[in-house]
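Is this the right way to post structure tokens for a design question? Let me know if I should format differently. Anyway, here goes:
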């Protein structure tokens, strides 16, 4: 448990508290309030008390679209796992299968206040695969994983055209991007029916 005091708090549920306390039992917030912690809280608290001297506390930030752990910072081609260039339609790819959980960007994101990310495939394919939700403060994959499949990556812009057109493969145009996506979605709809 940790008790943070004398902090400027920015809670999600109500307006800012200019001088308050936050009592946490990670990852759970046990109490939040203005002024000094009440005596009954101090009586049951077991752990450090940190005077933040007016420092600001904000909720953890969420990066809703990134490629952290898939374009690995500091690694060359062996750390490039965000795009499967073999086919423009790869919805069966999953971010967690290419994830390098020791990517230093997780620690850098956490240091910047980002506590949750949705990371996934790049934009080289029309359908690139599924994104996963991960927590940046965890040290094992089991605790890091928030949700294995959170979104499907689709790209209709320049990236699929560049990725495949330069190799004289479809899609080389926006028309082909749209046609490939339409065909994949139609097949998925028929499969579902």
């Amino acid at each position: 448990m940790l008790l943070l005091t004398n902090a400027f708090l920015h809670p999600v549920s109500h307006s800012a508290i200019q001088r308050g306390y936050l009592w946490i039992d990670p990852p759970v917030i046990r109490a939040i309030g203005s002024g000094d912690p009440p005596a009954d809280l101090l009586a049951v608290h077991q752990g450090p008390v940190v005077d933040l001297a007016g420092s600001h506390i904000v909720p953890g930030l969420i990066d809703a679209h990134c490629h952290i752990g898939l374009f690995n910072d500091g690694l060359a081609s062996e750390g490039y796992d965000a795009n499967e260039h073999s086919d423009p339609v790869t919805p069966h790819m999953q971010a967690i299968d290419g994830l390098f959980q020791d990517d230093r960007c997780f620690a850098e994101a956490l240091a910047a206040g980002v506590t949750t990310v949705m990371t996934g495939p790049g934009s080289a394919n029309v359908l690139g695969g599924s994104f996963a939700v991960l927590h940046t403060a965890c040290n094992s994959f089991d605790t890091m994983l928030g949700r294995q499949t959170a979104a499907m990556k689709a790209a209709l812009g320049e990236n699929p055209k560049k990725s495949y057109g330069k190799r004289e493969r479809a899609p080389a145009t926006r028309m082909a991007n749209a046609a490939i996506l339409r065909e994949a979605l139609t097949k998925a709809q028929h499969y579902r029916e």
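Format looks fine. Someone answered above. Worth noting: The chain has a mean pLDDT of 95. The chain is about 25% helix and 30% strand.
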